[in-house]
Structure formats: structure tokens, C-alpha cells
Design a protein that fits this description.
With 327 residues, the protein is of the alpha+beta class. The chain has two domains: 174 residues, 2-Layer Sandwich (Ribosomal Protein S5, domain 2); 140 residues, 2-Layer Sandwich (Alpha-Beta Plaits). The chain is 37% helix and 26% strand. The chain contains eight helices and 14 strands. A hairpin with an 8-residue loop joins strand 8 and strand 9. Helix 1 packs parallel to helix 2 and helix 5 runs antiparallel to helix 6. The longest helix has 20 residues. Bound molecules: ligand 2P0. The site of ligand 2P0 has 15 residues, from helix 4.
Length: 327
């Protein structure tokens, strides 16, 4: 049966950077993100006896090698659960540049998992979908849900899943993304985080701090305290990047434009334009702000030459099935 799903990307406010179990994709620390409206993956999956092998097309290109293998591995996991040996055709489109710190794997694996499970006739709840999605790409388990979403780290596979902390309508904050580079990064998150665990002596301190910051940010979300949410998110981002930079060889994902924008956000805040930054494994800067400041931040970013594109996102909703098939 042909099934199609869409899923939104997400940006972590408390980051996931490292696995306690590489095979099961258990993270070293529980983490939390907001789902981003309008940055999505749209994926059609058809399992059928018509196909002799799996076919994977992403953004108009037939995938081969490592990228195809990651998708096939996820199809295998889902086939295993459904007890099926049918091959699949997968066609997926992202409406944003992939692999430049904009988390295409998060929305991509969430949409793939929802569409593929439905295509094999499995009727799963969101918790189960997040457990399956997690094993394709960790951060994707959070994209099963909209709103403010925690990934509970767990000690075994069934205990590591996403939960909705607050609905997308609970507290309206915005993520204004300053895109300074659109190229694929040289070191993938998967490879980078494994190196950080292996070589960075600061690693454990950051994991301990992340657990503490997670408790604090959940309280701030409940109280709709934007300043506190922003401060904690920015601090956790810097803690994560400190461990990345102090990895051997160093993982410095920032470009000069990244630092320029960090400094500007700090200046704007001093002026009273309240905003905070967070950055994934890439050079692009996500600026967290309240709705009333969004326009002014977009206007200021437009005046910066290094900013190649700007995306402004509200908090988005759950991954969902749709009838809009891609083939
Ligand atoms: C996050 N990132 O929490 C962090 C912040 C990047 C920096 O999750 O190996 O692509 O597929 O589980 O999910 C990127 O890691 O890695 C990521 P895998 P994933 O959003």
C-alpha cells in the first residue's frame, strides 16, 4: 500500500550529542526540542511485490551508497517488526537545505518511519513510532510530535522515546534562522559525536549539566518564562559546542559569520531586543525570540551580507499521514 507522511524538523534547546548505545541509539542525556513549522520532509513509501530492490529518491536524486544504506537499514527494521520481505520505493522531498545544521535527518526519518509503518499496515501509537524513528536517526524521534518535545534517554530500547512536554499552542516562541552556509558539513553528526565521546575530557561534565538544564528548561516552559528558556538554551548550546571544539581532531562547525551573529544577538539583547541563539552541528544560527520581536530580527539579519537566507518558524505540529502522494 502506498502511504505518505510529512514531518517537521526540530531544533534542540537541550542538545543530543553522543550515544550511550551506538546500536540502539540511546542518547547519553535526555534532551528537548521545539518542532519547526514549515521546515519539513514529505515522504511517500510503497512496499510492493512489484519491486525487486529498494529504491530511494531524495530531492530528485536516486540515492546510492551510504545515504541509501541508512534508509534501507530503517526499512529493514520496519520490515522486521511487520514480518514482511517486500521491497519498497521511497520518494522524499525536503523544503530546506539538508545537512547544514538544519536537521533534515530529523524530519526525514520521522516522515519515513510514519509512512513506512503505515505502508506495511501497522497501526502504531506515537510512542512506538518515536522508538522506531529513533533507531534511524536519534533526533528524528522528537519530530514525531509537534510542540515542545523531550526525548527521554531510557536504559533500553523500549524506554527511549519522545514525549510532548507542551503543545505547539501552549507558548508561542519563534526561531529565526540565519542561514550562512547551505553546503553539506564535512563531519556528520553521527561521526562527530562518536569522536567527542572518545576524545573530549569535558564530555561528562556537559552530560551532567544537560540533565540539570533539562529540568530547569521544563520548568521555564511550564511557566512560559521566555528569558529563562532562552538563557538555558543558549548555555546548553555553548556547552555542547565547547565539547565539539575540544574534540580531537577539533570539530569547529562555526564560520566567521556564525561568530558575527552570536555577537550581534548579544548586543541586541543588551539594547532590549530580547533574543538568544542556539546552533546545531553546522554554522547556521537559530535565533529564539518572542513573536513581537520576530520582524525586527528578520529586518536586521537582512542587512548582514553573510546571511544568505532567513527562515522564520513558529512551533510546528505532529508528523502526520497525508493523501498527497509523491508518485
Ligand atoms: C540535536 N544534533 O539534539 C543535536 C544537536 C546535532 C546537534 O541530533 O547519529 O542526526 O542519526 O542519531 O540525530 C544530530 O544528530 O544523529 C543531532 P544520529 P542525528 O538536535
Amino acid at each position: 500500500m502506498k502511504c505518505t507522511a510529512t514531518a517537521n524538523s526540530n531544533i534542540a534547546l537541550i542538545k543530543y550529542w553522543g550515544k550511550a548505545d551506538d546500536k540502539l541509539f540511546l542518547p547519553t542525556n535526555s534532551n528537548l526540542s521545539i518542532t519547526l513549522e514549515g521546515l519539513n520532509s514529505h515522504t511517500t513509501v510503497d512496499f510492493s511485490s512489484d519491486y525487486k530492490e529498494d529504491m530511494v529518491n531524495i530531492d530528485g536524486k536516486n540515492m546510492e551508497g551510504e545515504k541509501k544504506e541508512k534508509v534501507v537499514k530503517q526499512l529493514n527494521l520496519i520490515r522486521n517488526i511487520a514480518n514482511s520481505n517486500l521491497k519498497a520505493k521511497v520518494v522524499s522531498k525536503n523544503n530546506f537545505p539538508s545537512a547544514a545544521g538544519m536537521a533534515s535527518s530529523a524530519s526525514g526519518f520521522a516522515a519515513l518511519t510514519v509512512a513506512a509503518c503505515a505502508s506495511l499496515g501497522m497501526n502504531l501509537d506515537k510512542k512506538q513510532l518515536s522508538i522506531i524513528s529513533r533507531q534511524g536517526s536519534g533526533s528524528s524521534c522528537r519530530s514525531i510530535y509537534g510542540g515542545y518535545v523531550e526525548w527521554v534517554k531510557g536504559k533500553k530500547s523500549e524506554g527511549s522515546y519522545a514525549v510532548k512536554v507542551a503543545d505547539e499552542n501552549y507558548f508561542d516562541i519563534r526561531d529565526v534562522i540565519a542561514i550562512v552556509e547551505q553546503e553539506e558539513k564535512k563531519v556528520s553528526s553521527r561521526a562527530g559525536m562518536a569522536e567527542t565521546i572518545k576524545t573530549c575530557p569535558l564530555y561528562k561534565s556537559r552530560v551532567d549539566a544537560a540533565e540539570d538544564n533539562l529540568l530547569k528548561i521544563k520548568r521555564a516552559i511550564k511557566e512560559k518564562d521566555f528569558s529563562e528558556i532562552g538563557k538555558i538554551a543558549e548555555f546548553d548550546c555553548l556547552l555542547m559546542h565547547a565539547t565539539m571544539i575540544a574534540t580531537i581532531p577539533s570539530l569547529l562547525y562555526w564560520s566567521p559569520a556564525t561568530i558575527k551573529i552570536i555577537k550581534l544577538v548579544q548586543e541586541w539583547r543588551e539594547e532590549g531586543l530580547e533574543s538568544y541563539f542556539t546552533i546545531d552541528a553546522g554554522p547556521n544560527v537559530h535565533i529564539l525570540t518572542l513573536p513581537e520581536n520576530e520582524k525586527e530580527i528578520v529586518k536586521r539579519l537582512r542587512e548582514i551580507n553573510d546571511v544568505k537566507d532567513i527562515k522564520s518558524c513558529k512551533i510546528g505540529g505532529d508528523a502526520a499521514l497525508t493523501e498527497k502522494h509523491l508518485f
